[in-house]
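SEQUENCE-TO-STRUCTURE ENTRY
===========================

Subject: a protein chain together with a token-level encoding of how that chain folds.

Sequence line: the amino acid chain in single-letter code, read from start to end.

Question of interest: how does this chain fold, as expressed in backbone structure tokens?
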Amino acid sequence: MLTLALLATALLFGGMVLHSFGFAAREVLMLVINYATDAGAKVRFKRLRGLSVALVHIGLAGAVLARFVGGAFA
């Protein structure tokens, strides 16, 4: 079970995967959110903002998980 957890962690929250999510959120998603705000599209803004918050939660969960897993083997 531990092996599966470590593999899932490496797949989901590996350095490059996490970096690519952050890059997409910063470079692409924020631009689209700004366009939705400028256009006054409130529903679209709320959905995109929710997606942005979800990506932040994924990143934070990955950081916490990496800290706990890294601390277990130190």
In short: The chain has three helices and no strands. Helices lie at 2-13, 15-39, 42-72.
